[in-house]
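Anyone up for a design puzzle?
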């Protein structure tokens, strides 16, 4: 019985006083619902209470106690050919949450049916299970030398793919060379191995 009482006390203390809280002057700029610690005086005593404050942008849609936010984004024709729902969420920085306690809501539907792999402005729709929808504009264009914003979108995601491939290749080479190095160092004198390596690379 005592264990149950302790667990219940811990549960309600965590619920009333979350570990991460903000003051009214330190709220994040990013859209979301955040716990804010406030102080007030009652019967001559200073008390504290956690309230939840919602920060919204011009891109935020709130219906009832569900909010969703997503930004317009740019992409190249080549990117539009293989655009996935996950990529669209990343490009638009789409997210949804509860305005009651800031908990995350899942974006269950991403409608990309109107987007074509040719230059133009299209629309993408993001929806939650509660039916709250945010529609954004998707600009598809070819990368131009002077179009820094579009090139940044392209370089950001293409370069990350190359970094992944290079890292994977390096790991594979390391895995293949490790047994060889172990055999060399275990079967011969270390100085002899080093001298042989120097002779190989000096040729």
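Challenge accepted. My sequence:
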């Amino acid at each position: 019985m005592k264990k149950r009482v302790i667990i219940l006390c811990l549960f309600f203390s965590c619920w009333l006083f979350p570990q991460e809280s903000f003051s009214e002057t330190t709220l994040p700029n990013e859209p979301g619902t955040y716990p804010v610690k406030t102080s007030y005086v009652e019967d001559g005593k200073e008390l504290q209470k956690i309230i939840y404050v919602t920060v919204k942008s011009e891109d935020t849609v709130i219906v009832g106690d569900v909010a969703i936010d997503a930004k317009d984004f740019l992409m190249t024709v080549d990117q539009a050919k293989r655009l996935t729902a996950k990529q669209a969420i990343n490009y638009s920085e789409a997210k949804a949450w509860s305005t009651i306690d800031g908990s995350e809501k899942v974006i269950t539907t991403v409608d990309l049916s109107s987007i074509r792999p040719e230059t133009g402005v299209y629309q993408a729709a993001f929806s939650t299970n509660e039916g709250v929808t945010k529609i954004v504009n998707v600009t598809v264009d070819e990368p131009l030398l002077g179009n820094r914003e579009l090139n940044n979108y392209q370089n950001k995601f293409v370069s990350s793919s190359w970094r992944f491939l290079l890292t994977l290749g390096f790991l594979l080479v390391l895995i293949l060379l490790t047994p060889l190095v172990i055999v060399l160092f275990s079967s011969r004198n270390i100085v002899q191995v080093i001298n042989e390596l120097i002779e190989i690379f000096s040729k």
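A detail worth pointing out: Helices lie at 2-16, 77-81, 85-92, 148-187, 190-202.
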